[in-house]
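Q: How would the structure tokens look for this protein?
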Amino acid sequence: MDKDQALIALSALSQETRLTAFKILLEYGRTGIAAGLLSERLHVPHNTLSFHLSHLSHAGLVQPRK
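A: Here is the predicted structure in token form.
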């Protein structure tokens, strides 16, 4: 990971909801967790979760699956 990528990742994780979401996603590993369940665990609306997940995805920290 180069310096620019690291800065983007650290910036994405510097927000509390995104950091908590990332930690939960790490717990589930490659099997992942459904967005609805993640939303419930974080106590945030689906659109708010989508906003935060897009930041994590842009930083290359998560990958969406269907």
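The chain has a mean pLDDT of 95.

Helices lie at 3-13, 16-28, 35-42, 46-58.

Upvote if useful.
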